[in-house]
């Protein structure tokens, strides 16, 4: 599959690519990506809103004793890349469902790339129901999370006018 960049010169490099035979219109097979590094502050702030204070996220010794290399990023924080990518490109999108398979841990400081690929699109009352294949990769190659998402999009036109930062 050919992946064409839609990134304007002022867009952050975390907006990687989008592919389509018709530029700026979502088609089945198109891929949207974003890369980010999760910080200690991200994990701390997520723990405050989620009330998840598991010591695996805050105490290196506890994490290592449980068999991990270091403190973990919350899996749901990593998975939050998917609705972020979709809503960035399709403002007003409604997230309907998400399945998740947590394959490998993500550690604070890991570079993670979230990817959504349009699998099927169906028009319904001037809106579009889109099924996405979702994946996250650590260091551009190691699959750490996958699943499927369903979203209702107000349009198939791909927005790219604001920053993800």
From TrEMBL:
InterPro entries according to UniProt: HotDog_dom_sf, MaoC-like_dom, UPF0336/Enoyl-CoA_hydratase
GO molecular function ontology, one term from the record: (3R)-hydroxyacyl-[acyl-carrier-protein] dehydratase activity
GO biological process terms on file: fatty acid biosynthetic process
Any one Gene Ontology cellular component term annotated for this protein: mitochondrion
Residues in MaoC-like domain copies: 33-130
SUPFAM superfamilies: Thioesterase/thiol ester dehydrase-isomerase
Membrane spanning stretches: none
Protein name, as recorded: (R)-specific enoyl-CoA hydratase
